[in-house]
Amino acid sequence: MSTLSGRWLLGVFLKYPVPGQVKTRLAGVIGNDAAAAGYREMAELVLVRTAAGEAYRRILFITPQERIQDFVRWLPDETFLPQRGDDLGMRMADAIGQLLAQGDCAVLIGSDVPDISTAVIMQAFEALMSHDVIIGPAEDGGYYLIGMKQAHTGLFDGIPWSTPEVLPATLGKIAMLGLSYALLPELADIDTIEDYQKWQARSRK
Q: Which site in 23, 45, 145, 189 is 20 to 30 Å from 197, CA atoms measured?
């Protein structure tokens, strides 16, 4: 395979692991400090498992922006851009636009999907060669990955985020726009204590 660095861009949404500000549903059960530590662990695992080689470049979209120096100390070898927008849909649309301004294909993922891998990322980019949109379905009815070659920002409008209707609503918009799409393997993102316990059990194995 030819080197495609600069043409394929991976974006990762990342929060700074401040207790009480990350994984709040999980924190309600295991406490703020433990939830923040768990988020930091899974985010670091996601970054290890999606390490950019020659095939694609990786950019971390961070929040809060004022913690930039903390992000640099935490992950000194990464490239950072701020998340911009009033809600998740706006932030994702902006990130996709920024990625496509630098390359031909953009894939965006969260930082709470510890089972993701470079193989899944490569599968997404390769599928974009013959589809308009790529979706990685999450077990909870949302998605952990979205990719596209053009900024179809309408796919992020009016989506009931953090509900089981995220994926069906997004697929409905894809159909309405007449776009082709492909689905990747279903993976779990970690939001609840049940998700967390299943991940810990898989990790122990």
A: 145
Structure tokens at 155: 């796919």
pLDDT at 6: 53
Residue-wise pLDDT for 93-137, tens only, equals 999 999 999 999 999 999 999 999 999 999 999 999 999 999 999
The domains located in the chain, with CATH, are: 8-204 (3.90.550.10)
Sheet holding 57-63, edge to edge: 80-82, 57-63, 8-15, 105-109, 143-148, 133-137, 181-183
Report the pLDDT averaged over residues 195-199. Answer: 91
Average pLDDT of the chain to the nearest whole number? 93
